[in-house]
Specification:
five-stranded antiparallel β-sheet; about 50% strand; 2 helices; mainly beta; five-stranded mixed β-barrel
Length: about 190
Amino acid sequence: MYILLEDEYVIRVPPELLNDDYSEAVIEASKSILEGKLVDILEGEKSLGKAYIVSVSNIEMKGEGTIVHGDGGVYQPIHYTALAYFPRMQEVVDGIVEGIQKFGAFIRFGPFEGLLHISQIMDDSINVDMDNQRIVGKDTKMELKVGDKIRVRIVALNLASASLSDSKIGFTAKQPGLGKPEWAQKQDINN
């Protein structure tokens, strides 16, 4: 789900951005550093997980910046508002199949990518056709290939590091209402 968050941060404004308009330099440095960053979402002292900052707005400088000897940049405390994507366990998301492997399909949703393991795709024996990048149910003939839209539920979520590439997200499509839209229509006809 997308959330709005407010937070404070100390931005390093590099010397090459320092010009006549210091406010513009702070805004540019803030967007460059914060957009695309994973941040902790806290409730008091308790961590609720991590969110991915999509866009930063309402950047306000808090006091004066500090110049560190030998650095050349200015360290400016700021207060900001951000639109962030905050994935949650058991959340149902719509994604796109980005890749097929022998062990499952990689699904992209928003800025994240996760694995739909072969055991969580459908209630059918599965053939993986690596040459044509598709997964096909042996009896149902339901097919999943690169570029398909699919609805999945998040069943594993580990955003422990500050990097998206180290994130581990797992999905299932084996529950009613999940999978490709065509699969739901096929299941309705069979029932």
